UniProtKB/TrEMBL annotation, chains A, B:
PANTHER family: ELECTRON TRANSPORT OXIDOREDUCTASE (PTHR10909). It comes from Pricia mediterranea. It comes from the Bacteria. Residues 153-263 form the Acyl-CoA dehydrogenase/oxidase N-terminal domain. This is Acyl-CoA dehydrogenase.
Length: 766, 766
């Protein structure tokens, strides 16, 4: 280290003069502040004072050579600037002097200059070639390790995919014109098909990778690029291709799946009608078998019976059309039929009418349309005939005799798409959290007017409380959805109905969570969050509809609840229901014992952080809601109320059960995962995330737990305090936690999140 | 009434054949259903049967002349079609026969046709020239009476304004290009200025109407036209003009207000900076008085110190710029100075740099910009000098010595704008509710598969619970904001600080409410709500930022809480605070008595609907939160924690208090209003709305009331049941309730709300 030539009295002023003159920080009227301080500084002798005042003349600023000498003095010292100091620059000066001199007191006159000129680290940080020590950041955990845990066995696929998104075609931009936007998104979809991602989930026999779990990861990562791309990709490969894969048979697979995977053949999934969205069983489009021509005649009967909101509808040349199949005058229920929409010159086929749905709140890069069919003929072979077919003799045949069961079996095979929607919502939430947290780790506002530096948003307890539980939930839902997809893909588990019920509930709570989360992030970023460039605004518009499509969340929650109630039977009738009630009544009255007051007021940390308590609380709620619900319905039915009416009467109760069941499911999946993690710091972190999720969710239903006597007032308050405490404990790690989402640096374009990102958290794609 | 010539056996089939053949409802394969029914109908003789079968040949459909005869038969009968009947068309046929014949049994074969063909009223309603009797709608209340109550003494102004919005210039359209959108909005603002609305709030001395309360009504009604128009209007006349009116003196008023009111002079309100949004006291822009030139030099010192988000910034020629006023080297704190941005040729003035903020989530018709000043000179007279001025001798002078108090006095005069933002949020919420409720009164989905008609969304309990409390809240907040503006305008109440605290809290809860409400409405409309044409999407984007601008909601809630705590003093220091604690401690411990268990478990309807209970509950929460908060802070301070840190520690508690205080305030204002209403049915309705608001809000905080022992479990459950019960009771009136918002028919362009709107609820502009 080079010996300093300035005496300490002068040296202490060097950082100040360097900052003042390097950045034209000072205006003529403000120099008085500096002069006043120098004149009041008793540590200076006349000669020092004269020298310092000679550097305080706006009309005669120091030479550049002198500035360079100062800069060298500062840089070579290797003193660190500690941003969290109350007076960072004064402390820096003091530390500089301490390097070379025994006596190095804190100088109040320097503090006076720092305070009165409001010189802040963000104004001069870039001038110092020294490390800026950021406040309250820990490197204890590693973002790439967390990312590795989340990627699991799909790491190679995910990393490869993230690399591919570096291509210029995925560069984020503001798109206001839907037609231009859609063209770009179409090109992106084709690009991904060229790279082989279109066939990720298809069978190996048709050139696919048979990797539905990997597909779900890709799908979530697509949200980091753009919402419209995600949905268009999903419509083409997941819904259109997926419907052929799941509902068609070998002849369809061989004929179409390769072309669909390579995006040579673009198509739609035409289920929803204007008059029938949630109640798809009631769709009106007909597919009438005409024996003479051996064709199916697709027809839109009434004015609200057109297909609506059909994605890929301006680019697609074919559609999987859901219609009431009528064979020999008998309605065999809803079936899927491949219908050509456009010929090779992209001209509409005869009898097909298509209209653009127009501008939407979001997803304007997706071409949603309305479709009308006027007696459109397609060959009998176009019926996707896995679950029901028309024989060459013109007879309908199905292995599943009950038409309702047949319909639900068909729907059940499409559950994978619902998991993917939840994942996409989760991806949007993660992106918004990464923006909001990184903004909060940079943005400052307010101080106690003794500090020079204002406080980081992330250091405010309200800010911690609004963002940290959302981060924890993202981890929980990630693991849950992974496990759910694994179950769905596990052929050893044949009962898809159980999974369908679970997925219905999870899709609802996770897409609701995603919307709440994105809104919270928008507000947490203030006005900056409102600008499109910061990405949250688009996410808000795009993710919004996730609560509606692939099943309206309220309807899905009710479905999940009915699944719980009926022990996963699809239909209630008074006979079947009574039987179910009996089972439930017995099971539940056995397990629901009175809560011990010592338990309902147990507030020690060990208990509150214990997964056993969390599991018990979630399970108690589900069981108790089920039992009371069953009792209410039974009472109504006993009074002679038709079951349909009885269910309407308890609809809000059902909704509560649907949500409770899904949260229990999510927590259990996560807790089981954590249980199998190797011992170590990451497991400890995941345990903490699980505890925060559980306690936060229990708090949200605290009024119910209190009503039941499950929680006493003291315990309920203790849980609230623990939630806040956990948020504070996680504060130093929150930057790493959002980096753990693995959003590639090249996709994180939000200016408010990317400034300094490289230094601290930016995760580079391998 | 004309005697019918068909025998009853034939007559009963006429409506069916009319529907079937008029609308090409039937396909070849479905005619079998009709034939089967005729053949199975034992009430027919051979001749009847032959005649009916002769009308059942797709290859030979009935002549048009016959169809006309049938239509005449139906129309002349004047039988009503009751949509809510289980089998509407069968019942209609039965009623038709009953008109002419003694014997007119319900015919199961007709029911068979109706069910199997799925013939629904929405398919044939347009064919019948008869009244369609809608289900569960009551005409007991009158929308225009409700609207009259809400308009109060501003009816003439509001009605006149609504008429003016009929002009083609206000026609709603989708605007994707911000530049075109902004041009249109500018023309709309000028048009309103021409009609005299720009000067509504200005003093009569400068040609204004001195009607700030009326201005707030106009402002809310503007939201029915467009959010961007509302905000641009507010920036020009409220913020820019208002700042001159409130912070300037006579010379400024005379020189500028007429031109501003007529939109000859367009301007901005330049307060927020990139680095300082919430903490405006810390803004960095300087206005340095230069004695030599007698000018103020406006300057942007550092890289984050530019003005940001300044509305009207591309069209404005002048701005009220907030800056640190430095006179003779001393910083006198933040002051407002008029600065010319552009010359008469709309060229930027020297030293002024302006950049478009770019696309936003919403409000893209507002031209928000960033502004940098590089040593821009303006005459000393441009200082808005009501609260502080520079004398001709170049000395600073103010009647308010404390610079903080001076600053808050200046801000306090701008509180009217904050009320207006809350009103605009409320207007957005009302519009979204009108769309969602009217949609829910038309849209059907699902049935119990015995009914022909599916159920109206509005008849689902979950739907009632999601929308009805939001409608009640809109009424409560409307009255509250009206009263708050009246207090603000009442010169007999000089202590504006008290009102400022109240407005801060109300603005936060009402704009949060508005966002939640619009989101709920979006989801309640399903995919249709996602289309821009249905208006909710735009409202969602526009109203979103209301939670941030004119004060971030979290910051405002904390401000409100601090106001409560400090007995409305602005600054805390340990001495002053201790005194406050003393007062609070004494006051509160006197009023907070232990809750009698008989009270905490009182569940009779009279008690739960009694405003005394509601007021007590709201007040208990505010008082108790204040007391416990004060105790916590005192303990921290006793332990030697600096007050700033102590306040950080209790920040989430403060936030809860801020919200609780504001809800109490809102409820009390509404309850007092209802108390002064004349006896009668409308008062009864308003009482019900108040009860629903109160019980719903108490439920939302039920976990806290339970923890405190204020509510017992039984009472808490009873409140939940009462909320659901009230929603059901209000079900027949919900259409009228949203019509009572007075949204003019010509502005309600959402297709999903406007279908049949005229028949039932549409309110015509007088």
């Amino acid at each position: 280290m080079q010996r300093q030539s300035y005496p300490p009295e002068i040296l202490q002023y060097i950082p100040f003069f360097y900052v003042i003159w390097s950045d034209d920080l000072i205006t003529a009227s403000e120099i008085n502040v500096v002069k006043y301080a120098i004149n009041s500084d008793n540590s200076l002798n006349a000669a020092h004072r004269e020298l310092l005042l000679s550097w305080s003349k706006p009309e005669n600023p120091p030479e550049n050579s002198l500035l360079k000498e100062w800069k060298q003095t500062i840089s070579s010292s290797r003193v660190k600037l500690v941003e969290s100091d109350t007076y960072p620059l004064t402390s820096f000066s003091q530390n500089l002097v301490c390097l070379y001199h025994e006596a190095c007191p804190f100088n109040d006159q320097l503090k006076h200059i720092e305070t009165n000129l409001g010189i802040q680290p963000n104004h001069y940080g870039h001038l110092f070639e020294v490390d800026i020590q950021r406040s309250s950041e820990s490197k204890y955990y590693s973002a790439s390790e967390l990312d590795g845990i989340l990627k699991g066995e799909h790491a190679e696929l995910v990393d490869g995919f993230r690399s591919v998104t570096k291509d210029a075609i995925f560069e984020w931009n503001i798109h206001r014109n839907k037609s231009e936007f859609r063209d770009i998104v179409l090109e992106q979809v084709k690009f991904l098909a060229d790279k082989g991602y279109g066939t990720t989930a298809y069978p190996e026999a048709v050139g696919g990778q048979n990797d539905m779990e990997g597909y779900a990861h890709i799908f979530e990562n697509l949200m980091y690029v753009d919402g419209s791309l995600t949905i268009k990709f999903g419509v083409q490969f997941g819904l259109f291709g997926g419907s052929i894969e799941k509902l068609g048979t070998k002849r369809h697979h061989e004929k179409y799946l390769r072309d669909i995977g390579s995006a040579e053949l673009l198509g739609c999934f035409a289920m929803t009608e204007t008059g029938h969205g949630s109640n798809v069983r009631g769709i009106k489009t007909t597919a009438t078998y005409d024996r003479a021509s051996d064709n199916l005649i697709i027809h839109t009967p009434g004015k609200n019976d057109n297909k609506e909101y059909i994605g890929n509808g301006l680019h697609g040349t074919m559609a999987t059309v859901f219609a009431q199949l009528i064979v020999n005058g008998k309605n065999e229920g809803v079936h899927a039929i491949l219908v050509r929409l456009r010929d090779e010159q992209q001209q509409l086929m005869e009898g097909v009418k298509i209209e653009d749905c127009g501008y939407k709140l979001g997803l304007n890069g997706v071409d949603n349309v309305k479709i009308w069919f006027d007696q459109v003929s397609v060959p009998r072979e176009n019926l996707l005939n896995k679950h029901g077919e028309i024989t060459t003799e013109g007879q309908y045949r199905s292995k599943i005799e009950n038409p309702n069961k047949r319909f639900f079996t068909m729907l059940g095979t499409l559950v994978g798409g619902r998991i993917c929607v939840a994942r996409a919502g989760l991806g949007g939430a993660k992106f918004a959290l990464a923006v909001a947290v990184n903004h909060a780790l940079r943005r400052r506002q307010f101080n106690d007017s003794v500090k020079v530096q204002e406080d980081l948003l992330m250091d405010y307890p309200t800010h911690q409380l609004r963002l940290t539980p959302l981060v924890a939930s993202a981890y929980v839902y990630h693991i849950t959805l992974d496990k759910m997809m694994a179950s769905y893909c596990d052929d050893a588990r044949p009962d898809k109905r159980v999974i369908e019920t679970k997925v219905a509930g999870l899709k609802a709570i996770i897409t609701w969570y995603a919307n709440d989360c994105i809104q919270e992030c928008r507000e947490a970023c203030g006005g900056k969050g409102y600008l499109l460039e910061n990405r949250i605004a688009d996410l808000k518009g795009d993710v919004d509809i996730f609560t509606t499509f692939e099943g309206d969340n309220t309807v899905l929650s009710l479905l999940a609840a009915k699944g719980v109630l009926s022990d996963f039977r699809s239909e209630f009738n008074s006979a079947g229901f009574t039987a179910v009630l009996k089972i439930l009544g017995i099971q539940i009255s056995d397990t629901l014992t009175t809560i011990d007051p010592r338990y309902s007021n147990k507030v020690d940390a060990d208990h509150l952080y214990n997964p056993k308590f969390h599991k018990h609380a979630f399970n108690y709620r589900t069981q108790r809601l089920t039992y009371t619900l069953a009792m209410r319905i039974r009472d109504y039915i006993k009074k002679g109320m038709p079951p349909y009416q009885a269910f309407l009467k308890v609809q809000t109760h059902l909704l509560a059960l649907g949500k409770a069941f899904s949260k229990e499911l999510a927590y259990n999946a996560f807790a089981d995962f954590v249980n199998e993690m190797p011992e170590g710091k990451n497991r400890g972190l995941f345990e903490k995330l699980g505890a925060l999720y559980a306690l936060h969710e229990i708090r949200r239903d605290a009024e119910w737990y209190l009503e039941q006597g499950y929680l006493g007032g003291t315990k309920s308050k203790a849980i609230r305090q623990r939630v806040e405490r956990l948020c504070t404990e996680l504060r130093p790690h929150i930057g790493v936690l959002v980096s753990g989402f693995g959003i590639p640096a090249h996709l994180m374009t939000a200016p408010i999140a990317s400034e300094d990102w490289k230094i601290d958290f930016r995760l580079n794609v391998p």
